[in-house]
Design brief:
26% of the residues lie in helices and 33% in strands. Strand 4 and strand 5 form a beta hairpin. The protein starts with a helix and ends in a 5-residue tail after the last strand. It contains 3 helices and 6 strands; from the N terminus they run αββαβαβββ. The protein has a single domain, classed as 3-Layer(aba) Sandwich (Cytidine Deaminase, domain 2), CATH 3.40.140.10. It has 129 residues and is of the alpha+beta class.
Length: 129
Amino acid sequence: MLSLEHWQQMLQHVRSWFPEEACGLIGGKQNRAKQIIPIENELHSPVRFRMKPEQQLNGFLTLEQAGLDLIGIYHSHPTGPDYPSETDRLEYAYPGTVYLIVSLNNMEWKVRGFQLDDKKVIEIPVIIL
């Protein structure tokens, strides 16, 4: 579950890096987001992302210090699809977290959530309040 404020933070980050993929961490408790941590995509690519390692580590430390769990990873697909790519599935490294994909569809940014455990893709509803 995302607050409208958290969705707007992710959307601002995604738009600011367009046409490159943007990425970040979502911290929270019990599937409720409490903090969005934008991370630089060190690949600067419109079709792939890799979180800049030192920023990712700092993000993990920030979550730990705040007493939050890593509940999700987000990244954008500026040119689609709105579904995890083969590369996303192969490189996913955080089982048990929700994987959010923010994509541009008919000139509107949308978000979809997925569970990628055991290389299976299961859609998870994303609720924005």
